[in-house]
Automatic annotation (TrEMBL), chain A:
Origin superkingdom: Bacteria
Protein name: RNA polymerase sigma70
GO biological process assignments: DNA-templated transcription initiation
InterPro entries, sorted: RNA_pol_sigma-70-like, RNA_pol_sigma-70_dom, RNA_pol_sigma70_r2, RNA_pol_sigma70_r4_t2, RNA_pol_sigma_r2, RNA_pol_sigma_r3/r4-like, WH-like_DNA-bd_sf
Chain ranges passing through the membrane: none
Record's keyword terms, sorted: Sigma factor, Transcription, Transcription regulation
CDD domains in the cross-refs: Sigma70_r4
UniProt family annotation: Belongs to the sigma-70 factor family. ECF subfamily.
Domain RNA polymerase sigma factor 70 region 4 type: 103-154
Gene3D superfamilies reported in the protein's UniProt record: 1.10.1740.10, Winged helix-like DNA-binding domain superfamily/Winged helix DNA-binding domain (1.10.10.10)
Gene Ontology terms, MF aspect: DNA binding; sigma factor activity
Source taxonomy: Bacteria, Pseudomonadati, Pseudomonadota, Alphaproteobacteria, Sphingomonadales
Listed PANTHER family: RNA POLYMERASE ECF-TYPE SIGMA FACTO, RNA POLYMERASE SIGMA FACTOR RFAY-RELATED
Residues in RNA polymerase sigma-70 region domain copies: 11-73
TrEMBL record, chain B:
Protein name: Anti-sigma factor
Top-level taxon: Bacteria
Source organism: Sphingobium chlorophenolicum
Length: 162, 230
């Protein structure tokens, strides 16, 4: 099995992870594509025998965090794209902008990044706490407290239907 | 009240408890309906989230991503150009149209260029047209233009992605000509130019938008060529 075919084999899961992080599916595939490109450039840094999926989750998560930061910088410099469409609804702007998304997408997007990535790795990707903590580079206790807070927020956002 | 906290409940749901603690939670749940209801909420949340995203993993992988990996497997790994994915929606398109605006005047002025404008459309000519007509991705050592992917477009007809030192892009068969759908700047004289194409997010995005089914394999490509791309 080559590096590329190993990547191809886990690609469906990588796309799922990207979808659970991103605000919509188009952003998710952009993120996934960028992570693949980065992995191909950085292939020498992957150590055979270690888990390729964890390595890819880490690459994707770091790209996503970087992208979030640059978006925040841009938001401080320029008026947000949607601003014109939501005059008078400033408080609900995020919610309004995502009216096309499902309840779950919206609720996930409402979480702080650090809670969303923990939830995505454990509840969606099915990683163990230890694996997820390794991907995120945080102690187990930090991971579990993010899981507790994130789940509490999701249950509240999704209501009794959750 | 019990001594079961929220972290312990979710660890139960996530299968992270050791046997002893799990039994302790089991006993507490049996004795405390409110606790059982909280646990049930967490079970439903986990099911709902994993169920919501599961279809994404069941979808076929986008052709562009698949092509990126299959192409990469064929090429000696060298440094690829920096990812431009943040600018796909706007920057890439603007850069491409800017190139078109600048390029057409130049190329249409000379018979030697890779692209001519005929009836308001860009068509391949010269070495680019020859490469699109005759070159197989599996046999193109030393050619000035390299063919990337060949594929069937939505609605029928053949398209091929190409890469050269001056320009890379995607062309689709229209009658007896190759109509150029997209042009982006090639990597110039850089000896690594072969790397530019398959990883170029703009070209892959165009392929993704056009492609119907998977790209042609070598045998299918040869058959399509022999049939004159009709």
């Amino acid at each position: 099995m080559s590096f590329e075919s190993d990547l191809l084999a886990i690609l469906p899961r990588l796309r799922r992870f990207a979808a659970s992080l991103s605000r919509d599916r188009a952003d998710a595939d952009d993120l996934c594509q960028a992570a693949l490109e980065k992995a191909l450039r950085a292939r020498d840094q992957w150590q055979p025998g270690t888990r390729l999926d964890s390595w890819m989750y880490r690459i994707m998560r770091n790209l996503w965090i970087d992208e979030g930061r640059s978006r925040q910088r841009a938001a401080r410099t320029f008026a947000p794209e949607e601003a014109g469409e939501h005059v008078g609804h400033a408080g609900d702007r995020d919610v309004e902008a995502h009216v096309m998304l499902s309840d779950v997408d919206r609720a996930m997007h409402a979480l702080p990044d650090e809670q969303r990535e923990a939830i995505a790795l454990v509840l969606v990707e099915g990683l163990s706490y230890k694996e997820a903590a390794d991907v995120l580079g945080v102690p187990m206790g930090t991971l579990t407290s993010r899981l507790v807070r994130g789940r509490g927020a999701l249950i509240e956002l999704l209501g009794e239907a959750a | 009240m019990t001594d079961i906290d929220e972290a312990m409940l979710i660890a139960w749901v996530d299968g992270e408890l050791d046997e002893v603690t799990r039994r302790r939670v089991d006993r507490a749940i049996a004795e405390d309906p409110a606790l059982a209801e909280r646990l049930e909420r967490h079970v439903r949340l986990r099911d709902r989230l994993s169920g919501h995203y599961a279809p994404v993993a069941a979808e076929p992988v986008p052709a562009g991503m698949q092509a990126l990996l299959t192409e990469s497997a064929k090429v000696v790994p060298l440094a690829r150009p920096a990812s431009r994915w943040r600018h796909w929606g706007t920057g890439g398109a603007i850069a491409a149209s800017l190139l078109l605006g600048l390029g057409i005047g130049h190329w249409s002025g000379g018979p030697e260029g890779p692209v001519a404008v005929r009836n308001g459309a860009m068509v391949a000519q010269g070495t680019l047209a020859t490469a699109l007509d005759t070159q197989l991705a599996s046999a193109q050592d030393g050619s000035p233009v390299r063919i990337g992917l060949s594929f069937q477009r939505k609605g029928g007809g053949w398209c091929r992605s190409f890469e050269g030192q001056a320009v890379s892009g995607v062309a689709c068969r229209e009658g007896e000509k190759w109509q150029v759908q997209q042009l982006v700047a090639g990597a110039g004289q850089d000896t690594d130019y072969r790397q530019a194409s398959s990883g170029d997010a703009r070209i892959m995005a165009t392929v993704d938008a056009l492609i119907d089914g998977p790209p042609l394999n070598a045998a299918q490509e040869a058959a399509a060529k022999d049939a004159g791309w009709r």
